[in-house]
Amino acid sequence: MQNFIGQGVDAIIVNPVDTNAVKPIMDQATKAGIPLVFVNRRPQAELTDKMAYVGSDSILAGRLQMEALAKAMNGKGNVAILLGDLANESTRDRTKGVEEVVAKYPNIKIVQKQTAKFTRNDAVDVVSNWMTSGEDIQAIASNNDEMAIGALQALGKNPNHILIAGVDGTPDALQMLKSGKMIATIFQDAKGQGEGAVDAAIKLANGEKVEKIIDVPYQLITKENMAEFTNRNQK
After folding, report:
1. Both 183 and 193 in a single domain?
2. Is 67 helix (H, G, I), strand (E, B) or coil?
3. Where is the Periplasmic binding protein domain (predicted)?
4. Which of 18, 30, 143, 151 falls between 20 and 30 A from 170, CA-CA?
5. CATH code, domain with 20
6. 142 and 72 fall within a common domain
7. Of all helices (H) and strands (E), which one includes residue 102?
8. Mean pLDDT, range 107-131, rounded to an integer
9. Are strands 219-221 and 185-187 parallel, antiparallel or unpaired?
10. Model-level pTM greater than 0.90?
11. Do 64 and 113 sit in the same domain of this protein?
12. Sign of the dihedral through C-alpha 141, 90, 64, 76
């Protein structure tokens, strides 16, 4: 950040790792008079002049995901949640969205919530432990696709037919949808967020006004509509 300021850049785009620790970055940018655009992860601080956030509503992602699971569960059963990085706002908000939907279904209960830090390998360990301990689980809501795929790896042939849903719409997740191993993922428009962040940064650098919160909507992906998303988040 200090290097960018020292170079006299016209604007800075940041994807924060810890959304609770952005205040120093914001203070530095404000002091230097340089526009600052956050992308993908919403900072847990009030945006001031010459600042914007471009991203998606993570609560909506959780709602869409859990509604798909609830429908597949016929409105009853036990669900476990694979949490991402606990310092990340998307973990908190996606989980909140899942919990809001579960609250509407008296016969669905959340029986486990544990972090796997957004990684496939950690999810393998977490879900393996759940299975070893004999947890009665009918569905797993994962805060991202990587953990959802890790859950599938832990379940092997998935003899209990546990339903899995993720978030991001990655190419690997779409393959899992195609094969019927996952029932849903939520498309996060990474390209749209990136383009939106650059557009906002250019406008702010030119002295134009932009909305402080620029929303790039999430969309539900199932086996039925996955064809239209196949090329949208390619690696």
Report:
1. no
2. helix
3. 1-209
4. 18
5. 3.40.50.2300
6. yes
7. helix 89-102
8. 98
9. antiparallel
10. no
11. yes
12. positive
Q: What is the pLDDT of residues 145-163, one digit of tens each?
A: 999 999 999 999 998 999 9
32: enclosing H helix or E strand: helix 23-32
Tokens of 194: 């990136």
Q: What are phi and psi of 103, to 5 degrees?
A: -60, -20
How many distinct structural domains can be found in the chain? 2
Q: Round the average pLDDT of the chain to a whole number and report it.
A: 94
Q: Pick the closest to residue 50 from 177, 207, 198, 184 (CA basis).
A: 207
d(CA 97, CA 64): 8
Residues 115 and 46 grouped into a single domain: no
CA 167/CA 61 separation, integer angstroms: 7
The angle that helices 145-155 and 171-178 make with each other, rounded to 10 degrees, is 40
> pLDDT digit string (tens) for 45-71?
889 889 999 999 999 999 999 999 999
Whether 227 is covered by a domain: the verdict is no
Q: How far apart are CA 68 and CA 70, in angstroms?
A: 6
Tokens describing residue 31: 């002091």
Number of Cβ within 10 Å of residue 86's Cβ equals 10
In a domain, 224, yes or no: no
**Parent domain of 72:** 58-187
CA separation for the pair 29, 32 (Å, rounded): 5
